[in-house]
Amino acid sequence: MPGEERPDDPVGVFVAAVRANRPASVLALDFDGTLAEMVEDPAVAVPLPGAVAAVERAASRWGEVAVVSGRPLRFLEGHLPAPEVTLVGLYGLEIRRAGSVSEHPDAAAWRAAVGRAVELARESSLERVGIESKGASLTLHYRTARDQAPAVEEVARQIAAATGLLVRPAKLSIELHPPTSVDKGTAMADLASRHPGPVGFVGDDLGDLPAFGVLSGLRSTGRITLAAAVIGAETPAGVTAAADLVLDGPAGVLDLLDRLDQ
Question: What is the pLDDT of residue 10?
């Protein structure tokens, strides 16, 4: 029967629960690889046509809709200016909620260390590797220099030892972050704590696994949740294995947003 939701289907259960209690529901989405296609130069990544409108439309109807990303807040705001959309940048070190911006207290203390990390990366022997300074974190991209992966990993370890930053692997990149407890899991837990209804998260990378873990824990307490993985050429297998639903690229995310909007 068209539109009928199977009770044993976590996607159908989630959709039905959202439709029944949309003002108390929460949805969070990653940016790169989820709302935007992966590109060689991160600076030119843009949301898929229609993605911003779909997110803003959801934000006007749900309890809260957030974009949770490793990108800095300034980048996210350039693509998602509507204050109704919560923006969580640098895995939770920077947040814009209801138009108000806040920063994690540890972020400012580590900016000098990140600046030093950027200097060390530029002084290294890395070739064809993108060095993306995010203010309170650093990412080394080797998407266009995949043969450099071992060298990038070694340089990242050396920088971490010299600065106290932590190394986090990601899609064809290495991230260096302040040694805080902040990640997408803590961001997801905070979002879920603010609203009593269903909670969903859509992501595509290793950094999204802590958010999936939070959803699993919430589900064990009876909360209705949905973990959706966006599959692409670079999606780690562990991400899809941890998900309730696999979506085919950002276009699949738009299809899910459309289904949830009905």
Answer: 86
